[in-house]
Amino acid sequence: MTAKLIGAVMIEAACAFMGFYASDRLGKRKKYLGNIISAMSVLETEISFGANRLKKAFEAVDSMIDTRGLFSAAAERLEKEGVRRAWADAVSEKKAELRLNAGDAEVLEMFGGRLGMTDTDEQIKNIAHVKGLLAEREKAASDDCAKNGKLYRSGGILVGMFLILMLL
Amino acid sequence: MNVDLIFQIAGIGIIVAVINQLLSRAGRDEQALLVTIAGLVVVLFILTQEIGDLFETIKRIFSL
Question: In angstroms, what separates the C-alpha of A158 from chain B's closest C-alpha?
Fold first, then answer.
């Protein structure tokens, strides 16, 4: 009887954890997309008013906003690999940590493709364009979080109960 | 006849109903239907033994 009880508690805990984890993932995606948008604004300021080199601008952005080291990862690679490769590699390295999906990563990679190739005005236009795209994605992530976050949480607990009843 | 079996099946019924409501509220009607069917199949699985016993008893009573 005790063994059954312990097993039941473990199954319930595991299922509830999975539900909460999935829900948390949605919340984090929303949060990090918001942070990346703010980081883009800071980068815009750095480029237009600071007239800093890209590496310095990236490092400055990273010290101000939590993007899980996305910008500093790109800054480290910048001199070795060139802007485009450095940015793409940084995105693919950090996308799991930032909980981004394939579409989000694609938008960010597109940003890197046009970065550092043109003059300041064009770069600022590029940043504004990417910011617009990311804002749309953040809104979608926010809707997704509101709609599915609760579902995953209660779903996890209920599926755990279902399994326990089945195995009883 | 084990009374626990009845409670077990009732419990599965309640939980499947709640999951069904939850999914259909979230606009996932297809998955809600899938969960209902899965619940039905699970309950039938649990009941197969009992149904077999019922048939055996009927056969024995009427000496078929």
Answer: 7
Burial of A105 (0-12, 13-18, 19+ CB in 10 A): middle
Q: Is B10 within 8 Å of chain A by CB?
A: no
Q: How close B15 gets to chain A, by Cα (Å)?
A: 6
- For residue B36 the two structure tokens come to 């209902």
Residue A151: what residue type?
A: L
The position carrying tokens 């998955």 is B31
- Split into its structural domains, chain B has a count of 1
pLDDT digits (tens, 9 = 90+) for B2-54: 788 899 999 999 999 999 999 998 888 999 999 999 999 999 998 999 999 99
Mutate to test the interface with A, among B19, B23, B31, B36 (most CBs of A within 10 A): B19
Question: How high is the ipTM of this complex?
Answer: 0.76
The DSSP secondary-structure symbol of A117 reads: S
* Residue burial A84-99, b: 16+ Cβ < 10 Å; e: rest: eebbbbbbeebbeebb
Domain range holding B30? 3-61
